[in-house]
Amino acid sequence: MVNMIIDGKDVSAKKDTMLLEAIRGAGIAVPTLCAHESISRSGACRLCVVEIKKGNRTRIVTSCLYGVEDGLIVNTQSPRVQNVRRLVMELLLARCPESDVLRKMAREMGVEPQARYAADQDKGKCILCRSCVRVCEEVVGVSAIGLFSRGSYKEVGTPYHEKSDVCIGCGACVYVCPTGHIEMLSTGDKRKIWGRTFKMQTCDKCGKHFAPVDQLKFISKKTGVPFKNLTTCTECR
Amino acid sequence: MNENSDIQAHEILDNLTLFYGPKKKFVAICAGTGCRASGSLKVKEALEAELKKQNMNDVDVLATGCLGFCEKGPMVVIHPDKYFYQHVKVEDVPEIVSKTVANGEVISRLVYRHPETKKTLYREDDLPFYKKQHRIVFGQNGMLDPSKIEAYFNINGYQALAKALSEMTPDQVISEVKKAGLRGRGGGGFHAAVKWEGVRRAHGDPKYVIANGDEGDPGAYMDRSLMEGNPHSVIEGMIIGAYAVGSNQGYIYVRNEYPLAVEHLTIAIAAARENGLLGKNILGTDFSFDIHINKGAGAFVCGESSALFASIEGRAGEPRAKYVHAVEKGLYDKPTVLNNVETWANVPLIINKGADWYASIGTEGSKGTKIFSLVGKINNTGLIEVPMGTTLYEIIYDMGGGIPNGRKFKAVQTGGPSGGCIPESLLDIPVDFDKLYEVGSMMGSGGMIVMDDTSCMVDVARYFLEFLKEESCGKCVPCREGIRRMSDILEDICAGRGKEGDIELLETMGAAIADGSLCALGGSAPNPVLSTIRYFREEYETHIKEHRCPAGVCKALITYSIDAEKCTGCGVCVKVCATQAITGEKKKAHVIDKDKCTRCGACIQSCKFDAINVK
């Protein structure tokens, strides 16, 4: 175990955990947008920053990536921390003015939109947290989407914005997206995502369109389970 | 250290060196990228042909790397007297050979004339540009043809390596570098020996040694000049470093926009391998090490260590949080020493001449010398190498020759795009890592951009933020979105759309971006804005409150008019004006139609009577 002082409280945490978990474990709320339990962390959103003190030196660190250390003094609400969080929220509100998730979060943090920033019209709700890219690579294992361009031109999408051959239409990206940016439309036996239309498998028992055929084929190929054994939905299994 | 190797390594090297004897007389012609652009290779060919024609076969022509005084290129230095000729053309060659090379006679039209005293100065060392420099690293450029390893042998090349391998243990090498106080020349100023020690102690195999040659600062080219002009010094430094930390594999990460550097490094690595200085069993010892060149695709952010590793690994050049240091988990998550090109080039000197000698140069906290590229509104554009602690004044006025056209100095930007602008009142500060940081700038890799009173500081900040906006990798929010918004606000201020409160907002944003960004690019990106606000706040206020650009730069805030008393009605400006905004009768004062004028400045350039006013 590792002992630290967080916001004046003595907190002990398991070795090899991250500060974010230790802080939340102590009942202190830390806002995050890009830390998701099922994927590796990138430190992109910068909302989880905290101020740490080691010896005489204080600095701002990303709590989702900073491992716990014995004797660390952590301040999750210092003026510097609040300045960074306020800036990040203001910037994201200006980037994605349509996002309800961001608006609600900002309200809770007491952050108003910064009038000096002209709101973007072309970014949708995407904050470039890259959760979708990571889940597609790390969990699904197909890397159908990626990040391209640099700086403020950066975008998420399929290569060259063309229909992806490897996408299986699973919708994991939709599931992890914190702001609801990625559009997935399922109607009848069709699902539309990333510009491609997928045929949905009908459940042998209840007749529900429960998963894209391509996804079941992919699972069959990966696991060796024959395709015909996968054509029943999870509820009927 | 290898047993029985103490004599062997030196012997092998001596045999290599003896093989090539230097010629006493030689003509060095600068063949760095700058001088090549102004035709130095043609002069070189002409020199060779002329020497042959005049049967002077005992004289060598060395196409050297950059000699530093780029303003005067192409330049030729005739040894052993070191006569310095500037702006040399092919037509000058026969005379140079028959008079100077053959008889030591000086051609006065080619020599340097002191701009103030008008005295002619013949020898390289007499020129004010060179006189105050201390060129321990960069000075070797003038003595060798970088494409020939034998030239490097002739100036004691690879002696430091032989010494390290045969007389020193790896720990002794590290402690020598530590005692010398060598700090990283790439920007951070981190102690090199501390990194080396970390990697030596770190668990993990293999260990990597990397030279960072991703010099991306606008106007900075000292690393390029070392890679082009003395590649073996970098390679030798790396081999010594690799021996010290226990690494067998090295990389040089160099921008692909530096084709000559890539070429010379490639030649040098091949020659070092051929001579048993790279590869297996270096100089007969059991130490093996090799270097691979990795060409960068031109992203500024790839100079940042973790982004550089990602780039070598074949991934997008994006930094990651560095809470586990590169000395433990660097390239491929293995212990890695990453030092800048110039840092590596210092290593052989320290081993050859000793830590005490090295530490005697420089200031308390910053040892040795530093190469700076001096560009912008300065008379002597070029590269200079000075001891740490030299004042900005000495650099700009003594070596740099002051500001052209009798204009007034306004500021100098040090440390590249994310450095800060230092005003005239601080010109007396000694330049070292700590002092520059104290005044809100940084050493960076050593770029210095000099500005005069025709430079608008808001426009300067706008320019650098525009650059950084383009170069941000886009991974984290404060850098990607924050720099863009700062840049928008600066754009507004320069266009007369600045608002009350903008300065304060920029300050708040700057502090939060510096604190909140993932890597040093975002961490230092607000510097140009914060430092110009700190020292030139009134200039921002004039833009915002009075909609005026005092320096006459921001087009939306200035108007051009003709001074009727000075105007002679010559009509030259009428001819150059692209929008036909100037009218007037011959020999009578002309006028500018403000609505048609695009404030391009062509009329100012063309007017011989200084009759065009900008307000």
Write a short abstract of this structure:
Chain A has helices at residues 19-25, 79-95, 100-109, 131-140, 172-176, 213-223; strands spanning 2-6, 9-13, 49-54, 57-62, 73-75, 146-148, 155-157, 184-187, 190-193, 196-202, 209-212.
Describe the protein's architecture and organization.
The complex is a heterodimer of chains A (237) and B (615). Chain A has 237 residues and is an alpha+beta fold. Chain A has 2 domains: 2-109, Ubiquitin-like (UB roll) (Roll), CATH 3.10.20; 131-230, no CATH class. Chain A is built from 6 helices and 11 strands. In chain B, the strands form 6 sheets. In chain B, strands 12-11-15-13-14 form a 5-stranded mixed sheet, with helices on both faces. In chain B, strands 2-1-3-4 form a 4-stranded mixed sheet, covered by helices on one side. Chain B has a 4-stranded parallel sheet with strand order 9-8-7-10, with helices on both faces. Chain B has 615 residues and is α/β, with parallel strands linked by helices. Chain B is globular, with a radius of gyration of 26 Å. The chains are: A alpha+beta (237), B alpha/beta (615). Chains A and B meet through strand 4 and helix 2 of A and helix 18, helix 19 and helix 20 of B.
Secondary-structure map:
The complex is a heterodimer of chains A (237) and B (615).
Chain A: E1 2-6, E2 9-13, H1 19-25, E3 49-54, E4 57-62, E5 73-75, H2 79-95, H3 100-109, H4 131-140, E6 146-148, E7 155-157, H5 172-176, E8 184-187, E9 190-193, E10 196-202, E11 209-212, H6 213-223
Parallel strand pairs in A: 1-5
Antiparallel strand pairs in A: 1-2, 3-4, 3-5, 6-7, 8-9, 9-10, 10-11
Helix pairs in contact in A: 2-3
Chain B: H1 5-19, E1 26-30, H2 33-37, H3 40-53, E2 60-64, E3 76-79, E4 83-85, H4 93-103, E5 112-113, E6 120-121, H5 128-131, H6 149-154, H7 159-167, H8 170-180, H9 192-201, E7 208-213, H10 222-229, H11 231-245, E8 249-255, H12 259-274, E9 290-296, H13 305-312, E10 336-340, H14 341-353, H15 355-359, E11 369-376, E12 382-387, H16 392-399, E13 409-414, E14 420-423, H17 433-438, E15 447-452, H18 457-471, H19 477-494, H20 502-516, H21 520-524, H22 527-545, E16 560-562, H23 572-576, E17 582-583, E18 591-592, H24 602-606, E19 612-614
Parallel strand pairs in B: 1-2, 7-8, 7-10, 8-9, 11-15
Antiparallel strand pairs in B: 1-3, 3-4, 5-6, 11-12, 13-14, 13-15, 16-19, 17-18
Helix pairs in contact in B: 1-7, 7-11, 7-14, 8-9, 8-11, 10-11, 10-12, 11-14, 18-19, 18-22, 19-20, 20-22
